[in-house]
Write a structure and sequence with these properties.
The complex is a heterodimer of chains A (169) and B (409). With 169 residues, chain A is α/β, with parallel strands linked by helices. Chain A has a single domain, classed as NADH:ubiquinone oxidoreductase Nqo5 subunit (Beta Polymerase, domain 2, 2-Layer Sandwich). Helix content of chain A is 21%, strand content 25%. Chain A contains four helices and seven strands. In chain A, a hairpin with a 6-residue loop joins β4 and β5. The radius of gyration of chain A is 18 Å and the shape is elongated. Chain B is mainly α and 409 residues long. Chain B has two domains: 51 residues, no CATH class; 346 residues, Cytochrome-c3 Hydrogenase, chain B, CATH 1.10.645.10. Chain B is 46% helix and 11% strand. Chain B has 17 helices and eight strands. In chain B, the strands form three sheets. A three-stranded antiparallel beta sheet of chain B has the order 1-2-3. The chains are: A alpha/beta (169), B mainly alpha (409). Chains A and B meet through β3 and α3 of A and α1, α3, α8, β6 and β7 of B.
Chain lengths: 169, 409
C-alpha cells in the first residue's frame, strides 16, 4: 500500500502561511490541497520552487453525477520530488460555462501534452498554453468525450467524418 | 557539374523563407519502424532533422471512458491492452491502485507472487524494447535472442493463468490463480538459463561497433530536460535521475529484496540500452530472492473482507465463504467503495504507471485515469531528434519504448 514516505507537513505549513484559506486533507497517506482557480498558478509555481520538481500528471474529474459535489470539474495536479520521495496532490475546481485555468507549461514542460489531453477530453481551457490543440481526438471533433454527459457509445460522430478517397488524398 | 538554377541562392526570390526549402517527411502512422500506430511529421534539411512534430491518437480507444463502466475486476482485461508488451505489470498497477483506494492489505504470499510476475514482465518488456532498438539499427540476431526468451516467459504465464499475452491475472485482493509447483519449476528453469542468453546478447551488441556508432551520443536527454519533461523509468534513469518507485515508495514486497537502481549519466540511446540491460540483471536478482522465499498461506485476502472470491471449499464449508460468495455474485451487493479518490503508481518497465481512481460507492470506478509513461516520453521526442539525421529517428523512437496502445489508450 502506498504511504507518503516523507512527511509533507513542513511544506504544507509554509504553503498555508503564504496562501491563507487553502483546504488540506489526507486519504490513505496522500496529502491533498484544494486551491482556488485564481491562485492555482501561484501555488503551483511556489510548490515547484519548493522542491516539487516533477509534475507526474495533470488530469481532471467531472463531478456532474457525483454525490454531494458542488463544483463540476476538479483538476488534479500530481506533484512529486526527485530529490526526496514525497508527493502532493493539488486540486483546482472550475465550473461551466467557460471552465478555464492558467497553464503551467512555463513551470513544467511535462504539462504541455497533459494539459492538451485535459482540454481534449474535458474541454477545460488552459490560458497561456502555447499550443492548445486536441491531443487524441481528430481536429473536427466537437465534443469532449470524458465528460459525464457524453455517452459511452458516442453520438455518431464516427459516421459523419468526411471520407477521404485515394483521389482526394 | 553545374548547379541547378533553383538551388542557386542568387536566384532565390527575396520573399521565400528558409523553411520553404525544407522537406517534410511523413513518418507513420503505418510504418514498420514506428512499431505501433503513431505519426511523426519530420522537417528535413537534406538528411538532417530540423524539427519533428509528433502526432498521436490513431489508436485511441477510450479506455478511460470504459473504465467508468466496467467493475474493478472487469477492467483488468482492458489494462492488458494498454502496454501489451508487459500486460502483467499493468494488471498489477491497476489493482494496486484499486486496493489503495479500498484500503486492502494483501496477503504476504500475494505480494511476493505479484512481485514475481511484475519482474518477469519487466524482463520481457526490456527484451523487446532493446531487441527492437537492435532490430532498427540492423542487429536482427539480437532481436531473435530476445524474442526467444520472451517466448519462455509467455510459457510461464500460460502455465500460470492460461493466457500467454493478455493475462488479466490480478483480482481485487488477490490473483486469479495461485502458483503451482510447475510454475515455480518453470520460473526456476528460466532463471537458470536466462543469464547465459543475457550474456550472449551483451556480447552480441554492447560493444558492437555499428550499434555503438548508431546510438552513442544520439538523442541526448539531459537530467534537467528529463525531470522537467516528466520522464520516468529507464528513460529518466539513463539521464541520471535516481528515481525508482521500487526503492522510493516500496510497494508489494520490494522492500525485502536486495537490488540496485540502474542509472547512467549520458542520457543517449546507448545509455538507455545499457540501463535496460542492467535492469534485467537486477530483476533476475529480485526473482532469485523471491522465488525461493514464497510465503505459505492463502493467496487471496480472507473471506471475511468480502473482496476476493472465496474458494469452492470455503463456499461449501464455511458461513463466511457462503455469504461472501453470494454478496460478490449479486450485482447490487458487491463490496463497498468509499466516496474518495487516490493515486497509486508502480514502477512499470516503461516508467511510472499509475492510476487515479475515484470511487463512488459501487464497484465501478467513477473515474479511472491512467498515467501513461509513454505520453510524456513521446512529447520529449522533438527535443531529442533535432539536429540528428533521419536514420536516427528509429533509434531514438525505439529507445524511448513508445507503445501506442498505452500512449493513446
Amino acid at each position: 500500500m502506498t504511504t507518503d514516505p516523507s512527511p509533507t507537513a513542513d511544506i504544507l505549513e509554509t504553503l498555508v502561511a503564504r496562501f491563507p484559506g487553502l483546504e488540506t486533507s489526507a486519504y490513505r497517506g496522500q496529502t491533498r490541497v484544494v486551491v482556488g482557480e485564481p491562485a492555482s498558478f501561484e501555488v503551483l509555481s511556489f510548490l515547484a520552487a519548493a522542491g516539487f520538481d516533477l509534475l507526474v500528471d495533470v488530469t481532471c474529474v467531472d463531478y456532474l453525477e457525483y454525490r454531494g459535489a458542488k463544483r463540476r470539474y476538479g483538476l488534479v495536479y500530481l506533484l512529486a520530488s526527485t530529490a526526496t520521495p514525497r508527493r502532493l496532490t493539488v486540486r483546482v475546481f472550475v465550473d461551466d460555462p467557460e471552465p478555464a485555468v492558467r497553464s503551467v507549461v512555463g513551470v513544467w514542460r511535462s504539462a504541455d501534452w497533459l494539459e492538451r489531453e485535459v482540454w481534449d477530453m474535458f474541454g477545460i481551457r488552459f490560458v497561456g498554453h502555447p499550443d492548445l490543440r486536441r491531443l487524441m481526438m481528430p481536429e473536427q471533433f466537437t465534443a469532449h468525450p470524458l465528460r459525464k454527459d457524453y455517452p459511452l457509445q458516442g453520438r455518431g460522430e464516427r459516421h459523419n467524418f468526411p471520407v477521404l478517397t485515394r483521389e482526394d488524398g | 557539374m553545374s548547379i541547378a538554377p533553383d538551388h542557386d541562392t542568387r536566384v532565390r526570390p527575396a520573399a521565400t523563407r528558409e523553411e520553404d526549402y525544407l522537406w517534410t517527411l511523413n513518418f507513420g502512422p503505418q510504418h514498420p519502424a514506428t512499431h505501433t500506430t503513431l505519426r511523426l511529421v519530420l522537417k528535413l534539411e537534406g538528411e538532417r532533422v530540423v524539427d519533428a512534430m509528433p502526432e498521436m491518437g490513431y489508436l485511441h480507444s477510450g479506455f478511460e471512458k470504459i473504465g467508468e463502466h466496467l467493475t474493478f475486476n472487469q477492467y483488468v482485461t482492458v489494462t492488458d491492452r494498454m502496454n501489451y508488451i508487459s500486460p502483467m505489470a499493468n494488471n498489477v498497477a491497476w489493482h494496486h491502485a484499486v486496493e489503495t483506494l479500498l484500503g486492502i492489505d494483501l496477503t504476504p504470499r500475494c505480494k511476493v507472487i505479484r512481485t514475481i510476475v511484475a519482474e518477469l514482465a519487466r524482463i520481457s518488456d526490456h527484451l523487446l524494447c532493446n531487441g527492437a532498438v537492435g532490430l532498427d539499427t540492423g542487429a536482427f540476431t539480437f532481436f531473435l535472442y530476445g524474442f526467444y526468451q520472451r517466448e519462455v516467459i509467455y510459457d510461464i504465464f500460460e502455465t500460470l493463468c492460461g493466457a500467454r499475452f493478455t493475462n488479466s491475472y490480478t483480482r481485487v485482493g488477490g490473483v486469479s490463480h495461485d502458483f503451482t509447483p510447475l510454475v515455480i519449476e518453470k520460473i526456476r528453469t528460466f532463471l537458470r538459463t536466462f543469464p547465459k542468453t543475457l550474456d550472449d546478447m551483451e556480447r552480441l551488441l554492447t560493444r558492437n561497433r555499428i550499434f555503438v556508432d548508431r546510438t552513442k551520443g544520439v538523442g541526448v536527454l539531459t537530467k534537467e530536460q528529463a525531470i522537467n519533461g516528466g520522464a520516468s523509468g529507464p528513460v529518466a534513469r539513463a539521464s541520471g535521475v535516481t528515481r525508482d518507485l521500487r526503492k522510493d515508495e516500496p510497494y508489494l514486497a520490494y522492500a525485502d529484496y536486495d537490488f540496485q537502481i540502474c542509472c547512467a549519466a549520458a542520457g543517449d540511446c546507448y545509455a538507455r540500452y545499457l540501463v535496460r540491460m542492467q535492469e534485467m540483471r537486477e530483476s533476475l536478482k529480485i526473482l532469485n530472492q523471491a522465488i525461493e522465499n514464497i510465503p505459505a498461506g492463502e493467496v487471496n485476502v480472507g473471506a471475511d473482507q468480502r473482496v476476493a472470491r472465496p474458494t469452492k471449499e470455503q463456499v461449501y464449508s464455511t458461513i463466511e465463504g457462503t455469504i461472501s460468495h453470494f454478496e460478490l455474485s449479486m450485482s447490487n451487493r458487491s463490496f463497498e467503495v468509499p466516496y474518495e479518490e487516490s493515486y497509486a503508481a508502480i514502477e512499470a518497465p516503461n516508467g511510472e504507471l499509475g492510476f487515479y481512481v475515484v470511487g463512488d460507492g459501487d464497484d465501478t470506478a467513477y473515474r479511472a485515469r491512467c498515467r501513461p509513461p509513454s505520453v510524456l516520453h513521446f512529447s520529449l521526442f522533438p527535443q531529442l531528434i533535432r539536429g540528428h539525421t533521419h536514420s536516427d529517428v528509429v533509434a531514438v523512437l525505439g529507445s524511448l519504448n513508445i507503445i501506442a496502445a498505452e500512449l493513446d489508450r
